[in-house]
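Give me structure tokens for this 446-residue protein.
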Amino acid sequence: MTRERHIPGANSTELLKRREAAVPRAVFNTVPIFVAGGEGAEVIDVDGNRYIDLAGGLGVLNIGRANPHVLDAVHAQVDRYIHECFHVSMYEEYVELAEALNQITPGDHDKKTMLANSGAEAVENAVKIARYATGRDAVVGFTNAFHGRTLLGMTLTAKEMPYKHGFGPFAPETYRVPFAYCYRCPFGLEYPSCGVACAEHTADVIDSQIGKDNVACMIVEPVQGEGGFVVAPDEYLPALKEICEERDIVFIDDEIQSGMGRTGTMFAAEHYDVTPDIVTTAKSLGAGFPISGVTGRAELMEAPHVGGLGGTYGGNPVACAAALAVIGELTETDLLERARAQGRAIRDRLDPLVDELEIVGEVRGLGPMVGIELVTDKSTKEPHKIATGAVAKRCHERGVLILKAGTYDNVIRLLAPLGIPDAELEAGLDVLVDALRWAQTGAGRS
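Here you go.
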């Protein structure tokens, strides 16, 4: 499966010509192939090439592709009805999924859930709810964050290119503070002797520059996704939650990429023993169907007026059926334990590379949500963008799908389906490790 192949193949090349004629260039593509099928952690392209999937449809396929329980649930729902619009004629699937999300999200307080279509929509609605409930306007976000491509989501996203370049002006009353990116500490300190000074800085910015009575909410990813799989240190999220509690600020936990088992627990916030006021979910919630959730304290969710929240397709019954099957897989099988085992296997293979290879600056992650930060020099930590792209391309040509990430485009991130067979995972890691060693020799550095 990991033999070298020439991509794109003939059939993908023909489809690429049609794509270039019909689809704008701004709609980016990572690998120049077209998919014909696949199952679990395997992808098959239209030229018959097979690939080991360490990308997971950009974090959407935690339970794998073509999961039989999801397919059965979707087929059964399609045979009944496809769409009704919950605002016109209600259906049980919406309520059942809301009940399930209320049950599995952190905290034993009373909760309610609204459903939407995408992560960006979940973020937009979470902020709307927080603003309405508090009567305040300001939103605090973080460096290296990613919260979507809609106006507010894009504004809260830190990375300028390609997400924000040329798309301004941006949404008002949004503020950014440094995230606890310990490998690149914005204060030049070292963890843990730093005392998590970045949290103290956040409190000072809120109090002295924004005004605590002006802040509606703080939104944070426990593990930053697009920002480079940056993992918050143990004390950081609890410190942020305390800052919010002391100022009556709504604490929004963005679990769009880190949730649904991605870190070996249902939600990444569980690693920190933090109870958010609002949790946003999407991506792997629907196993490929467009659906997202905003789950929060009942009193917050009840604040907006009737008709203030919603959308035509939000909580589509087919997507709800898929999501309920996903939750069933995560709660009723050993998939979370398999995820934790996957994380251990990945770290066993990748952690030694920090000492072996000069270009590997850091390997980090929670569970199987692992990133490899590449640098030109360990002492300066200068981002190595060229090697990152070269490593990804070499993996693709050898039958392994991986993704880049990071504010500086210098992080390889792994998002394999949680149930990937051990042999496929090891084969994929073999290709990745070989590509990193190849890049170290200089072959991928120019």
